[in-house]
Amino acid sequence: MRTAYRVETVRAAEAELMAKLPDGALMRRAAAGLAAACAGMLGGAYGARVVLLVGSGDNGGDALYAGARLARRGAGVSAVLLGSRAHEAGLAALRGAGGRVADDPVGAVERADLVVDGITGIGGRGGLRPDAAEVVRAARGSGAVLVAVDLPSGVDADTGEVAGEAVRADATVTFGAYKPGLLIDPAREHAGALRLVDIGLALPPVPDVEALQHEDVARLLPVPVGESDKYRRGVVGVVAGSARYPGAAVLAVSGALRGGAGAVRYVGPAGDAVLARHPETLVHAGPPAKAGRVQAWVIGPGLGDTPGADDVLESDVPVLVDADGLRNLDPSAVRSRPAPTVLTPHAGEAAALLGTAREDVESRRLEAVRELAGRYGATVLLKGSTTLVASADGPVRVNPTGTPWLATAGSGDVLSGLAGSLLAAGLAPRDAASAGAYLHGLAARRASRGAPVAAYDVAEALPAAWRDVRG
Ligand SMILES: NC(=O)C1=CN([C@@H]2O[C@H](COP(=O)(O)OP(=O)(O)OC[C@H]3O[C@@H](n4cnc5c(N)ncnc54)[C@H](O)[C@@H]3O)[C@@H](O)[C@H]2O)[C@@H](O)CC1
Ligand SMILES: Nc1ncnc2c1ncn2[C@@H]1O[C@H](COP(=O)(O)OP(=O)(O)O)[C@@H](O)[C@H]1O
Ligand SMILES: [K+]
C-alpha cells in the first residue's frame, strides 16, 4: 500500500523526531537524499550546472544544503533567491562549498542542466508569485531537468488543488511521507516521477490517503476453490440499457462477466443485444424484484429516462448505482438502506449531486468525494483523471492505474459491471470499488499501449489485468 499523510500529521511527526535529534539533523537527512537523487538524475554531479530556486522557508534550506553537497562533488551550483530572506545556515553551507548566488536568474536557468525547485514545500500557500513564476517558466523552457523539493511549488499538499501557476517537475523528491497532493490531480500531474526519502518519521498507522498496489489487489480478488459453484461465487444483477442505449447494457455485462461473480443476470429491454454478445448471461425482461436472487445489483448505465434506482435500492443486498441511476438520487433513500451502497459518478454527475459545477469537482476532487460519501452514507467512487474512492470514514483510496485513453464512451459502464461483480463475490464496498478501478485502469493500459481504445477493448483486457496482478 502506498500511503499519504496530511501536512498537520507530517509536521507533528517531524516535531516529535526533531526533539530527539541534534539541531538541523533532519534537514541534513532530507538534503542528503535530495542530493543523491539529483546526482542520479544527472548521471554524476561532476561538471554539471545546477541552479537552486530558493524560497524563504525550510524548503529553500533543503535545496541549499543539497546544493552544497553537489558543489562538493564538483557541480557548478548557483542559487536564485526568491524570498524576502533565505535559510542562513543553508546559504552559508552553499557558499562554503563553492556555490554562489546567481546575479542573472533567467540566464542561469537557461544554461542549467538541472534546476532544483526549493521555492515552497508544505508551508506554501497559493500559486507561484510573479518573480518565481518567471524563473520557473524559463526553467521549463530551458530543457533542464526540473526536480521539486518535497512538493512542486504552488500546489496544495493536502488536497491536490492548484490555484494559480505551479511548478511542473520532471521528478519530486519528497521527505518522510507522500502528501495527498502528490497522488491526486491536478497536483499529481505537476509532480512527475515520485521519490520518497526516508527521514525516520514515525507516522500513525492509518493514513489520510492510500493507493492500492498489485499485492494489495491480489489479496482482495476472489478466487474460486474446489467446492465453489456458480451461486456460491455470487450472482450479480445488472439493470442497464434502454431501447436508445442497448450498448451500455452489453458493456456493463461485459465488465460483470469478468469480475469474479459466478453468474450475471441482466434485467432490462436490451436482452437480445446482451445475448448476442454474451450468450452466458441470464436475461430477464420483467422488474428486478422478479428476476431471481442476486448478491449485488448494478443499476444505471444507459437507462436513459426509464425510471431510476428505487426498486433496486429497496433490496437487501449491496447496490452499485452509476450513470442515469444517479439522477436525482435521494440521500435519505440511500442512507436508510440495510445493505451497503456504492455510487460511481464522474465529475459531472458528482457536481449535479452536490449542486455545484463540474470544474469545481475536478479541482477539489478529494473534498467532493468525501462530501458525497458523508451525505449519502455510501462508498463513492469518483471517476476521472484521478479516480478516488471514499467511504464515510477511513482513508480515501486513490487509484494509481489508468490512462487518459480511458476517457472514451462506455468505459464507465464496464467499470460499474466489474465493481458490481466484485461486490457480488463478497468484497467489502470500498475494496470492490477500488480493486475494480485498479483492474479497469490496468486493463485500459494494456489494451491501449499508447493508442486509442474502445470500451469493449478494456473489458476484453480484464483477464490479462487479473493475471498481471495475481502474478
Ligand atoms: N520541518 C522539518 O523538520 C523538515 C522540513 N523540511 C522541509 O521544510 C519544508 C517546510 O518548510 P517551511 O515550513 O519553512 O515552509 P516552506 O519552505 O514550504 O514555505 C514557507 C515559506 O514560503 C513562503 N511562502 C508561502 N507561500 C508562498 C508562495 N505562494 N510564494 C512564495 N513564497 C511563499 C512563506 O512566507 C514562508 O517563508 C518542507 O516542505 C521540507 O522541504 C525538510 O527539511 C525535512 C525536515
Ligand atoms: N483524463 C482521464 N484520465 C484517466 N481516466 C479517465 C480520464 N477521464 C475519464 N477517465 C476514466 O474513464 C472512465 C469513463 O467513465 P464515464 O465518465 O462514466 O464514461 P461513460 O459514461 O461513457 O462510460 C472512468 O473509468 C474514468 O475514471
Ligand atoms: K518545492
UniProtKB/TrEMBL annotation:
Q: Which residues bind (6S)-NADPHX?
A: 58-62, 121-127, 150, 248, 302, 346, 413
A Pfam match: Carb_kinase
Binding residues for K(+):
N59, D117, S153
- State if Nucleotide-binding is listed as a keyword: yes
Q: Per the entry, which co-factors are needed?
A: K(+); Mg(2+)
Does the entry feature the keyword Iron, yes or no? no
What does the record say about how the cofactor binds?
Binds 1 potassium ion per subunit.
Q: Which UniProt keywords apply?
A: ATP-binding, Isomerase, Lyase, Metal-binding, Multifunctional enzyme, NAD, NADP, Nucleotide-binding, Potassium
Recorded hits in PROSITE patterns, A to Z, give:
YJEF_C_1, YJEF_C_3, YJEF_N
Question: Binding residues for AMP, per the UniProt record?
Answer: K383, G384, S385, T386, T387, G412
Q: Where is the YjeF N-terminal domain?
A: 10-207
YjeF C-terminal domain spans which residues?
Answer: 213-469
Give the family, as the similarity comment puts it: Belongs to the NnrD/CARKD family. In the N-terminal section; belongs to the NnrE/AIBP family.
Q: What is this protein called?
A: Bifunctional NAD(P)H-hydrate repair enzyme
As recorded in Swiss-Prot or TrEMBL, the protein's gene is named nnrD
